[in-house]
Amino acid sequence: MDEFCRIVLAGGYGTRLGDIGKNTAKPLLALGNKTILDYVTDRIDELNTPSSILVLINSLFREKFEQWLTQRRHSTNISLINNQESSESAIPDIITNIALTLERQEISSDLLLVGADNLFDFSLSAFVPFGRANGISTIVVDVGSQRDAERFSVVELGEDQRIVKLIEKPKSPSSTTVTSCIYWFPASTLGLFRRYLHTGASPDTIGEFMEWVAQQEPVYGYRAVGCWQDIGTVEDYEIALSRTLSSPSWLPGIR
Q: What's 205's domain CATH number?
């Protein structure tokens, strides 16, 4: 498979995790004998592409990410990217952080972007060619209820799998299909990140960015089959832990 850039978003502070997130970065929380980040990078490793995985981190948890990296065996090279100026400075918001990484790492290839708080057991091997064939794409999943959908970017798909509507955290969702934090951007569209920042819109969430992108360019949704869970809150993490104990095989590799 041709080379493309792979970025994992792991630079948040996990403020919604309360005391759990004060001492441990959310992606480094344990599930079985692995961390959440292990499961994400393992899924990306399966693509067998020659390029490194770039993991965006922050200064607060830099040493713990470095420790994780030295202790973890991966089939491909992983580089930790910290765009925070110092341990005291505020970490760049998510869209600025991505834009800085693209520029500083001189990335000009297609981009696979994955959030480090996604837990999923499906392969990405079919999503990459889907993105190559269609353009800007995201994996979409059905969360089953409007209440759950309110937490995410809700989408409606047309017959050609093009997203005809994308709304970030609507109060009355018209669908229970939502975007996961897994995206494909062709090389020709990477300028959208910097272009969005110039609009003055909120750069704090990728959901609002994608809502804007869908108004500028065609965006397509790939329906994945399998388990997916966003780890945003303490409750989410406790649910994942409970699943691990009751059904160790729900995520491959958990023992």
A: 3.90.550.10
Tens-place pLDDT, residues 86-102:
666 777 899 999 999 99
Tell me the pLDDT tens digit for each residue of 167-212. Answer: 999 999 999 999 999 999 999 999 999 999 999 999 999 999 999 9
- Residue 253 maps to a domain: no
Domain count, the chain: 1
* One-character DSSP codes across the chain: ----EEEEE-----GGGTTHHHHS-GGG-EETTEEHHHHHHHHHHTT--SSPEEEEE-STTHHHHHHHHHH---SS-EEEEE--SSSSSPPPPHHHHHHHHHHHTT--S-EEEEETTEEE-S-STTHHHHHHHHSSEEEEEE-SSHHHHTTSEEEEE-TTSBEEEEEES-SS-S-SEEEEEEEEE-GGGTHHHHHHHHTT---S-HHHHHHHHHHHS--EEEE--S-EEE--SHHHHHHHHHHHHH-GGGSTT--
